[in-house]
Write a structure and sequence with these properties.
single chain; alpha/beta; Quinone Oxidoreductase, Chain A, domain 1; Rossmann fold; seven-stranded mixed β-sheet; six-stranded parallel β-sheet; 9 helices; disordered N terminus; GroES-like_sf; oxidoreductase
């Protein structure tokens, strides 16, 4: 018989807005006790290493490595031993306090995780299954991927798709999933390689670089827009057919409509650059708005929409339905799997995580960072 360890359950309200999709109803808002999952693996969970984001008495963000017990994990049907996580710009904003990301304190950071199921109250998942979890409230209002163990609602869990291993899943992570979702949405809106070039802004970032790689292997002519002239060879190596420099464009003098250049666009920056993108789209062009690295403002006109039939698609990967999430991940293991994934990915150990965030805030990082948690 597996050893049973008893831990007192404590009340915990579900994250705001989580609703039925969060999976909290199974435990009626409480943290599962060990007795909910009486296995040898869960008995070995305590204590384990975690990177926790908290506030001090002055509401200043204080992040630190610490240890947790399984009884401190949040509610959810699926327990996971985390092998890898990753660093996204959002993670850096959360950990440093540079952005108001965390909605509940304290919270284990990390909006991505990939690992192995150790226990499950959902029949779809069994111990030993390899799984991926991204988005929803993970690492924001629910303990996330920067810990050796996690417990999450089953509705958030995706089986590791064929064609990917756990490391590759985190080399992609939220950035890769979001880039792929943007491409899928644009395809559904009629985008095809024969329509013309696609421009990618914020090209050296995690989403931008992966988007270039995916689009190029699908047969698109890809233009990379960047502020870093020194990275031109890197971007061409990912598949960019041309590199445009931001310094060559006067964004303050962009007219409502400029010369039509692009059939599609993936924008990661917002602000004046997104205005320029819209003004330079071809007839019936499609723009996927993914990020706001430069600005959350958008000052534009209706002309691109009513005179050229341009579509502006908002890409929110956070609460995508499970069927869509599964389809996108399956494509990431097939035709959308970047050819240069290894070249754009670096790996750090868990202990190095606290020192890694500032480079993201300062814009010194290109590509993706995988965090080796328990592999």
């Amino acid at each position: 018989m597996p050893r049973r360890v008893r831990a007192a359950a404590k009340p915990l309200p579900p994250p705001s807005g989580a609703g039925d999709r969060s999976g909290y109803n199974r435990f009626q808002g409480r943290v599962p006790a060990y007795d909910d999952f009486p296995t040898e693996e869960t008995a070995r969970m305590s204590p384990f290493k975690a990177y926790v984001i908290d506030q001090d008495a002055h509401r200043k963000i204080v992040s630190r490595m610490t240890t947790l017990t399984a009884g401190q994990l949040d509610a959810g049907e699926v327990g996971i031993r985390v092998h890898y996580s990753s660093i996204n710009y959002k993670d850096a904003l959360a950990a440093t306090g540079a952005g108001k990301i965390i909605r509940r304190f304290p919270c284990v950071g990390g909006i991505d995780l990939a690992g192995e199921v150790v226990d499950s109250a959902d029949a779809r998942f069994r111990p030993g299954d390899k799984v991926v979890v991204t988005s929803f409230d993970l690492g924001v209002a629910h303990h996330g991927g920067y810990a050796e163990y996690a417990r999450v609602p089953a509705a958030w869990v995706v089986p590791l798709p064929a064609g990917l291993d756990l490391f590759e899943a985190m080399a992609l992570g939220t950035a890769g999933f979001t880039a792929a979702l943007g491409i899928v949405r644009m395809e559904h809106n009629g985008l095809a390689p024969a329509n013309g070039p696609v421009v990618v802004t914020g090209a050296t970032g995690g989403v931008g670089g992966l988007a270039i790689d995916m689009l190029a292997q699908l047969g698109y002519h890809v233009a990379a827009l960047t502020g870093k002239a020194s990275e031109s060879d890197y971007l061409r190596g990912l598949g960019a057919a041309e590199v445009r420099l931001r310094a060559e464009i006067d964004f303050d003098k962009v007219r409502p409509l400029e010369a039509a250049q692009w059939a599609g666009a993936i924008d990661n920056v917002g602000g004046p650059i997104l205005h320029w993108v819209l003004a330079t789209m071809k007839q019936a062009g499609t723009v996927a708005s993914i990020g706001n690295a430069a600005s959350f403002d958008l000052h534009t006109t209706v002309f691109p929409f009513i005179l050229r039939g341009v579509s502006l698609l908002g890409i929110d990967s956070g609460y995508m339905s499970f069927p869509t999430r599964l389809r996108v991940w399956e494509r990431l293991g097939r035709d959308l799997k970047p050819r240069h994934l290894a070249a754009v990915t670096r790996t750090i150990d868990f202990d190095a995580l606290p020192g890694a965030f500032d480079d993201y805030i300062q814009g010194r990082i290109k590509g993706r960072t995988v965090v080796r948690i328990g592999a």
